């Protein structure tokens, strides 16, 4: 696995955990219960949004569309360190904004919006770790069968 593929795998794992929660729990049902998020732009966004739909099939279809778009972006960028760094950073930043929205909506409504638990863990913590891996990679470990040089005094 190349370094770029590893960065993509970490980024996509972060996204997949969060999106799985949104497939399993209907945001539209939650929105009906709370009435309003106290953020008119978010209320408008949730109305008719397939990701927030009451119908599991619509939520899965929306997620499949996201997966296809992410796979296409991976294929386009994976051979370029710069493009990989830019794309994975943008995705981590965008999903971090979504994590903030989930936490804010939960706080404003005094409820737990679907997607809130995975906004915390892995959520922001995972995004911070992935961004660290993107911009400050660890030194590679020795490959099996190769000698590790001794520590100098």
Descriptive labels:
153 residues, mainly alpha
Percent of residues in helical segments?
Answer: 55-70%
Q: Tell me the number of strands.
A: 0
Radius of gyration: 19 Å
Distance between the termini: 34 Å
Which secondary-structure class do the elements indicate? mainly alpha
Our estimate of the beta-strand percent is under 5%
Kindly state the mean pLDDT as a whole number? 90
Largest sheet: none
Number of domains: 1
Please, how many helices?
6
How would you portray this structure in words?
The chain is mainly α and about 150 residues long. The protein has one domain (about 5-135). Helices cover about 70% and strands about 0% of the residues. It contains six helices and no strands. α1 runs antiparallel to α4 (about 55-75) and α4 (about 55-75) packs antiparallel against α5. The mean pLDDT is about 90.
Question: Which helices and strands appear, and what pairs or packs with what?
Answer:
Elements: H1 3-24, H2 27-34, H3 40-46, H4 56-77, H5 81-109, H6 117-135
Helix pairs in contact: 1-4, 1-5, 1-6, 4-5, 5-6
């Amino acid at each position: 696995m190349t370094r770029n593929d590893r960065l993509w795998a970490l980024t996509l794992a972060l996204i997949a955990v969060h999106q799985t929660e949104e497939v399993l729990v209907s945001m539209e049902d939650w929105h009906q219960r709370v009435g309003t998020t106290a953020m008119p732009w978010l209320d408008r966004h949730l109305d008719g949004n397939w990701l927030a739909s009451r119908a599991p099939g619509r939520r899965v279809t929306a997620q499949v569309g996201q997966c296809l778009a992410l796979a296409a972006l991976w294929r386009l960028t994976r051979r370029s360190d710069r493009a990989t760094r830019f794309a994975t950073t943008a995705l981590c930043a965008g999903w971090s904004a979504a994590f903030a929205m989930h936490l804010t909506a939960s706080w404003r409504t005094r409820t737990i919006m679907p997607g809130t638990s995975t906004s915390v863990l892995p959520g922001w913590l995972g995004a911070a770790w992935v961004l660290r891996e993107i911009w400050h990679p660890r030194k590679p470990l020795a490959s099996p069968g190769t000698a590790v040089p001794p520590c100098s005094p």
